[in-house]
Amino acid sequence: MIIDDTSERLNLLVAYPYLNGGLVKTLQEHAGIVRLVVDSGAFTAWKAGKPIALDDYCRFLETLPVTPWRYFTLDVVGDPHGTLKNYETMLARGFSPVPIFTRGEDPSVLEHYYQTSDLVGIGGLVATKGNTGFVNGIMQKAAGRKVHLLGFTRIEFLRHYRPYMCDASSWESGARFASLPLYMGGGRFKVVTKKDFAARPPQDVAGLIRRYGIEPSELRFDVAWRGGYSANRRLCATSCVAFSLDVQRNLGTLVFLALTTPRAANVLAEGYAHLIKRGKA
Description:
Layout: E1 10-15, H1 21-29, E2 34-39, H2 42-47, H3 54-63, E3 70-71, H4 80-92, E4 100-102, H5 107-114, E5 119-123, H6 131-142, E6 146-149, H7 155-161, E7 165-168, H8 173-177, E8 179-185, E9 188-193, H9 203-211, H10 231-251, E10 254-259, H11 262-278
Parallel strand pairs: 1-2, 1-10, 2-3, 4-5, 5-6, 6-7, 7-10
Antiparallel strand pairs: 8-9
Helix pairs in contact: 1-11, 10-11
């Protein structure tokens, strides 16, 4: 089935190193609602000291039982020339990967990528000081052409530039840091923590949490902030799916949520189904 870029879907991004049998099976189960983007996971592999071979990545894409909507080229961390070579090799082998332009490269490389792809991924944005100036500059050079901002979802930039795609893993912050980004609508998040539920939370917060399918009183207890299927994690998932749907409806930008496990895929799918059923995303 061909998925266009206007239909509402659960937008998920998964890196190659995490696409094992269990996660692939889960994605197959949710294929009817998912728009899947595959990242090469080169940075993850590089940090682990296990670089990915291009032949292995290509073979994986050829045999993946779930058809990705888009997939990125295999980039080479710290080696723009290696990234370009991999991209050109994949093209020669009949693949259609999304190329990646990384901060620090010559702008002429961006133009080179646009000669063979309608979409270019922009890397070097995560945990990088001063990246907003780079985003402004690269969006001007893109001049309205399609970009995917890797790991960058700042709402003021999405409103101004309306990029084609972007992604983030911030929906997992609740599980990681015992706080949660509650999407309030209109592009605005409110960060809440366990201590905010020691007393009765504000009416707008409590009402929104209920609409997201969680009873606010659950969040008063430690168990609600721990575990892969905790109330906190389910609320984070539903909240960020609501943000993704809202941004697509109002700005036309596709926001992809990064994940690494079958449980994460199930939690996000559950949140998506809840929002669609309620019609309150």
